[in-house]
Amino acid sequence: MILVTQPFLPPEEEYKKYISEIWERNWLTNMGPLANELEEKLKTHLGVEHLLFVTNGTVALQMAIKALELKGEIITTPFSFVATTSSIVWEGCKPVFVDIDKNSLNIDPRKIEAAITERTSAILATHVYGNPCDVEAIEKIAQKHNLKVIYDGAHAFGVQVNGKSIFEYGDISTCSLHATKLYHCIEGGLVIPNHSELNQKLKYIRNFGISGFDSFAELGINGKNSEFHAAMGLVNLNYIEKIHQKREALSESYDENLKDFPHQKPVWHSGATQNYAYYPILLESEEVLLKVKEKLEANQIQTRRYFYPSLATALPYLDPREMEVTDSVSKRVLCLPFYFDLEEVVVKRISEVIKTI
Predict the structure, then answer these.
(1) Which single residue of 42, 54, 134, 303 could bond 223 by disulfide (Cβ 3.0 to 4.6 Å)?
(2) What is the largest distance, in Å, between two alpha-carbon atoms of the chain?
(3) Bridge-partner residues for 96, per DSSP?
(4) DSSP-derived secondary structure letter, 271
(5) pLDDT tens by residue, 291-349
(6) Domains and CATH numbers, the chain
(7) Is 224 a catalytic residue?
(8) Percent of the chain, pLDDT > 70?
(9) SS3 label, residue 76
């Protein structure tokens, strides 16, 4: 079976070296030395001033909403992983869906203002597949209407826009370090706020709101991560350039092998670098997608309909709502196998199977 995704694993002995150190210190969690080291190295690597290492990307979103004290309605995209929307509901706010742009597959900033009401407190947008939103347009809208902006950058590790980290845009950005991501620490997430006061508030929130041995500063949760997860993050960071190069080569191989097959790819932000987080293709119709998916499965090749169905129609705790572009895209988009250990010869085989449709 050719899987649709597979975690990158570094040399076992390099990870074991960190594990031995953890055993010697007997310091397993509560922001130990490895967690702190990882935060510092990630700040340097990503070029950001503030960054917190947390439990996962979902907790990161929940912490961001809590730290900004958001109430009422939050404008968001229906084309994302469920955590983007569920975090809004979990924090007692109402998600208001705005349709996506048919080219970038990100939230369409031209449609945001029509959804703003006196109850709107923020915009929560996803950089889908790592492709940056129109951050300049969203910033103008937010400033005009005095709204906060959170970016779900679960897929966007390492991406830059106009020469700076994608995580520097908005009031808070978040990132997932789940095992399926191009850079991971098994389970983990990042919260990247845009100023020091917000960073301190998020530190309190991450640790139950504790500000001292016998004092509290905020309402908080347990958003910390362990030394074992930090160790994997530290080892994997040494291989990030190698990972990027391999994924770029795989992407180019798919491009070449599928160039004569009718499909589209998301149009990437013109001012942004690429991180090659996924390889999604947009097919002519859902009928064609199902034929491709069935043919690949018959050849022991796994794919993923990511994201399907639209969050505006799928969630039992929200009233369903039609979204013209999202409904169309979600039925036609398919992510192909894409991971470090995938070989180009296998990409060619996958492509040949697709081209038999």
Answers:
(1) 54
(2) 68
(3) 75
(4) T
(5) 999 999 999 999 999 999 999 999 999 999 999 999 999 999 999 999 999 999 999 99
(6) 12-237 (3.40.640.10), 240-354 (3.90.1150.10)
(7) no
(8) 100
(9) strand
What is the reported pTM? Answer: 0.97
Instruction: Find tokens 């670098």 and name the residue.
Output: 273
Q: CA 357 to CA 354: how far, in whole Å?
A: 6
Report H helices in the chain.
12-25, 33-46, 57-67, 82-90, 135-145, 196-206, 227-237, 240-257, 286-298, 311-314, 324-332, 344-354
What are the beta bridge partners of residue 150? 124, 172
Query: Angle at CA 242, nearest 5°, toward 268 and 32?
Result: 100
- Return the pLDDT at 247: 98
Residue 269 tokens read as: 């932000």
Q: Give me the mean pLDDT over the 183-188 stretch.
A: 98
What percentage of residues in the chain have a pLDDT greater than 90? 100
Supply 205's token pair: 């929130």
Q: Are 130 and 155 in contact (CB under 8 A)?
A: yes
Q: Which residue is it, tokens 């370090």?
A: 177
CA distance linking residue 124 with residue 338, whole number of Å = 27
Structure-block tokens of residue 342: 């995938």
Specify whether the CB–CB gap between 234 and 38 falls below 8 A. Answer: yes
